[in-house]
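Q: Structure for this?
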Amino acid sequence: MDLQFTPEQEAFRRDVRAWLAQNLERPWNEEVRDPEHDADSLVEVRRRWQKKLHAAGYLAMGWAPEWGGRGAGEVEEAILQEELARADAPQVPNFLGISLLGPALIHHGTEVQRKRFIPKMLACEEIWCQGFSEPGSGSDLASLRTRAEPDGDDFRITGQKVWTTFGPWSNWIFVLARTDMEDRYGGITFFLMPIDQAGVEVRELRQITGEAEFGEVFFDGALARREHIVGAIGEGWKVAMTLLGYERGGSALSYPAEYDGYLGALRKGAEEAGVADRADVREKIGRLVVENEVLRGNGLRTLANLSAGIAPGPESSFEKIGWSEFAQRLTDASQDILGPQAQLTARSHRARADVDWAYQYLWSRAGTIYSGSSEIQRNIIAKRVLRMPTR
Amino acid sequence: MQFELDEDRALLKNATRELLEKESALADSRAIMEEAPEGHAKDLHARLGELGYPGILLDEERGGMGPLAFVAVLHEMGRVAFPGPFLEVAVAARVLAGCEGPAAADWSARAAAGEALVVLATSEDPASADPAQPAATFESGRVRGTKTFVPTGAFADALLVSTTAGLVLVERPGAGWNAQPLTTIDHAQRFAEIAFDDPGELVAEGGRASALLADALRCGALGASATMLGLMERALELAIDYTMEREAFGAPLASFQALQHRAADMLLRTESSRSAVYRAGWALEAGAPDADTLISVAKAYAGPAARSVCGETIQFHGGVGFTWEYDPHIYLKRVKTLELFHGSTRYHTDIAYDSLT
């Protein structure tokens, strides 16, 4: 057993820290409070940040050099993400393209597709959004009804996608649509489609945070070209599942690092509010420190297993449940400990400057729903790990 | 990086499992827990002594095997709900080895060899077993005061007693201890309250005594956490096995989603405890600066986790889970006892709070 990073990995961490000190103009928490910013200019901040990361070789580090990566290992990727979280760096606009579509193209795409799409994705010249979920198909994704009907060599897409993160700012969308309405899994095909075309309409979808980062996408006979199918016709489910299973420990340490910052701020806030000596406050925060350290322990174990060549299995479900449910407990505690000031929106007079608690409180409700809800994760654990039977 | 144990420790863990499953299967050890005055099998403790187990926490040259081996062994003992004061004796053997004088060294060696039961007697408050300033005194060569919840109590051959002067080694008087048995819910322990007015030898004082008590707590908390990991791991197996066999409404209980999601949480807590407990053991072995914090994290997490898993195991069994005959209650009782000792959940949670910067 050995949970220590190698000297090379520690050196890599120092490089990342030094680079961040030079290149991150200000933490994301400060950007969002700047009254000069609106939703569009914040996207521009993120776009510039992605370009910087890309130029420094920190984007998609795990990919082979021919696809713009540096063939880095899982541990280096996790260290990078940990440092980015610690520094409160902006999230890159193409995070879904890079985490989901990129691996799909590398594993299942054609050479032509890779050359056409990957460089522009990394350079943030094209922003991608994901067209998987539908109003009637969330957790039960394979029930999706968006149709793809042949039109000469190509296809015409009709249907509706929802929860399309970054939809309002995207140029391209990767879409799961039915080429066969009967075959539940084998009837699904994976299409890449430009958004700016007749028959595609993106509408903003306002979230409980008040933002409209999500969108709804309506397809009404929109064109999907045959050469933009990833994998074969009818292989869309397989492609989507391999990329959903592509979690390689990148976030193993980043959530605990992010939560370290919040916990430190919560303690400071409790001290300033004069409640830090109360036994119930100490116990509540102490409990959260314990749970966050356990999350980090799970992450280190995942990384250690990956380093030892042990492929991650359903334990990524543990990680998902762990960080998403923790965030709800943490932000709920922040309300109880800091009081009404934790409900102030970021630009309010008297809002605490260190963490946007009101936003985090609301945003934490999303984590247990997206990317496989907590219920789906528990189904996976019960069925694939504990082998409990289906009724 | 590597999470798995290295070959030597993995072998030790497997050998320990084989030995305990053969010699201390719960079906047999339950009778000992319930009927033997000492609550554990003396011959098996002696045999473990011959194999060097109680000396596991000593320095390597005295037969110690290091914190990770200790975690692996206690993990296995948890799985079979191993009865008796093994953990407390292993900790006492280590603490005595750090004390002054030939008597302490001798009792350490005898405890490590499984020839004597020696444990620490520190607690004076029936409302809390957490570290506190002792009221017991040592003057003119005599210990005076009352210690409560002394593990293995009246059966101890010697006790290491915390006093205002330091740690005092007290051998069992010829007439036996002035002890009142404290029968608790835990079948596996024989606690006692002991009133001292006995001759003893001061074997550690001042900073040394404080450091040894801190070390005892560190090792005790790590060992208790590892034991709770084994207890919850095995309880979860019992729960899953039962739901696979038992049918209701024409289907195995395991096919009901109401139980599946709770079983998933039980596994999540067990696996998270595994990460936390082995990480803490590794940190202590590697001399990591945050080892003490990580041990507190492990204890503060594994306690509530194990209590929850073992409670659910009773619930999963339904009515038979509430019977004396079925095993789930053994697990819950051990876990709840361990949660209160070696630093309670509240105590270690408070340490975690203080680690926050």
